[in-house]
């Protein structure tokens, strides 16, 4: 089998008649890469409700192969731990291939060293599961981010903001009391 014929076979197997991979400029295309069928389905449904078109891949190799045969996406959501090719390897290979769309790591890991290594592969951001639209709103067109989404997963940051807001409110109230006296 020639290289050209092999490429056609790969293309047919990967796309399986689904043409969502072709970005004609009108749709916002998201590639969801995760080995867990339930997670892929949930992420797909969340994104489709917001008007995104979604292509699915079950491992990093499938994501790389999609790009090798000409696929183009506006955003990639990449799981870290997958068989065949993990998210770290796939992200590194995609960046080496010149893929420059945002790649967001999605993981259940909380180990700082693992997250740092994943980021160093070329991620634009890394989000801990469970994924919500609010956590990725800044990457999606027409989806407003809530103020709490930007606080991250660290509850201590949230407490600091709340403490600062309480201090400001207290100072404002005492200033208003002083003016009224």
Strand % is 5-15%
Q: What is the 3D shape?
A: globular
CATH architecture of the largest domain: 3-Layer(aba) Sandwich
Low-confidence stretches: 1-23, 147-181
Domain Response regulatory: 29-144
Keywords: Phosphoprotein
Modified residues (4-aspartylphosphate): 79
Region (Disordered): 161-181
What are the defining features of this structure?
single chain; about 180 residues; alpha/beta; Rossmann fold; 2 domains; five-stranded parallel sheet; 5 strands; about 45% helix; disordered N terminus; disordered C terminus; CheY-like_superfamily; phosphoprotein; Response regulatory domain-containing protein; ST_Response_Regulator
Topology:
Elements: H1 3-15, E1 29-33, H2 37-49, E2 53-57, H3 60-68, E3 75-79, H4 87-96, E4 103-107, H5 112-120, E5 125-128, H6 133-136, H7 155-180
Parallel strand pairs: 1-2, 1-3, 3-4, 4-5
């Amino acid at each position: 089998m020639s290289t050209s014929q092999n490429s056609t076979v790969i293309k047919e197997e990967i796309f399986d008649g689904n043409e969502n991979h072709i970005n004609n400029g009108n749709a916002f295309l998201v590639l969801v890469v995760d080995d867990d069928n339930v997670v892929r389905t949930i992420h797909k449904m969340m994104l489709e409700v917001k008007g995104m078109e979604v292509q699915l891949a079950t491992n990093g190799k499938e994501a790389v192969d999609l790009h090798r045969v000409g696929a183009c996406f506006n955003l990639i959501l990449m799981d870290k731990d997958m068989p065949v090719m993990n998210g770290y390897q796939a992200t590194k290979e995609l960046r080496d291939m010149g893929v420059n769309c945002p790649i967001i790591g999605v993981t259940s890991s909380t180990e700082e060293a693992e997250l740092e290594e994943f980021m160093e592969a070329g991620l634009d951001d890394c989000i801990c599961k469970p994924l919500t639209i609010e956590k990725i709103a800044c990457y999606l067109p027409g989806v407003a981010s809530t103020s709490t989404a930007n606080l991250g997963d660290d509850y201590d940051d949230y407490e600091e903001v709340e403490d600062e807001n309480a201090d400001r409110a207290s100072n404002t109230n005492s200033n208003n009391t002083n003016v009224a006296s």
